[in-house]
Amino acid sequence: MEGNILKYNFDQIYNRKNTDSLKWDVMKPIFERDDLIPMWVADMDFPVAQPIIDALKKRVDHPFYGYTQPGSSVIDAVVDRMWRKFQWKIEPEWVIFTPGVVPALHAAVRSLTHPGDEIILQEPAYHPFFPVVKNSGCHIASNPLKLVDGRYEMDFDDLQSKFDPKKGRLHNHGRAKAIIFCNPHNPVGRLWNGEEIRKMGEIIIGNGGFVISDEIHCEILFKGRKHTPFATISPEFQENSIVCMSPSKTFNLPGLEVSSIIIPNKKVRDNFLNTLAGIVPSPNIFGYIALKAAYMEGDEWLEQVLEYLEDNLIFLREYFRKNIPSIKVIEPDGTYLIWLDCRDLGLNNHNLKVFLRDEGKVAIEDGFIFGKSGSGFVRMNIALPRSVLQEGLKRIEIAVNKLI
Ligand SMILES: Cc1ncc(COP(=O)(O)O)c(C=O)c1O
Question: CB-side exposure of 370: number of CA atoms within 13 Å?
Fold first, then answer.
């Protein structure tokens, strides 16, 4: 403790093996070896904020874990957070809790579409978006992002073409019904600004479409960036969107499975609730406790973790520039997932994957799982102690040097 400030030490290395951690314990079956530095799935190798631990411990000590409904204090924590962080005034009844954003996306698509409809994805796209579309019987209408001078942009002309019955269609099943929008974007790290969001939303809504906005990374932003929730652009945007929020990425709580889905339009909300009913359960007791503690008391930790992540980004950027210039860092506005352009290594997807695993000894996400345009790229998780990040980068450097 320094004065009243609790100073966290993110340099400390913890052993997470044998804790049923996806990142650490499931690396072996997925990557076929367990001597890798895990830099893949999006969770942080940092312990969570102390107020969250305290709140969970207190609840554990009350030995009744019965059926649970979120009380008004949990809902108010979300309402208050949206206002404090984004000046978005939401009503308590708009908030629906689900055990994760991905199940909510599945329910959202099913509640808004009929089999055979098209859903727009902006590739490279977070890979679970693909089964969200396919498992609902819909088709993917791809609106690939454009890489212009090292920065990704949306292709608005192509987006408009998704509503043209004749031009530029991937399938001929019908006009696009909705987009799954991702802001900040995983994997490319772009924070879309108000103007871009407005332009995208006007195309979708102007053509009778709907926006499912996954904003799970919206509080992991580097200095000087400010997130704009999709629904805050206009009342029309608010009525035609489902906004997915969650403390799980920001506060490193994915194992507690809690997210808040904000649906202002009553008809859309009722349809969504009907789709969830009996299939997607409500989050568990501990998810609610953690959400409330994170949103109400987690900011001291968050400020420190954001500073640490930004220093990790600076370290990584310099490391690649000086020592591995053949791999280019796509500059992110936020998230701790770094999109790396490895095309100059001249390896095909399979060889890049095997190379990073067997020569680099790092577990990194292959770019092609995010769609065709991810070929030649990889996604690296940098939410780990700096010394471990340095070791991972060194391993990649040694491996790349062997290629030359
Ligand atoms: C864009 C995006 N959406 C959703 C998720 C996962 O959400 P959940 O674990 O709440 O289902 C992630 C996890 O990394 C993500 O990056």
Answer: 25
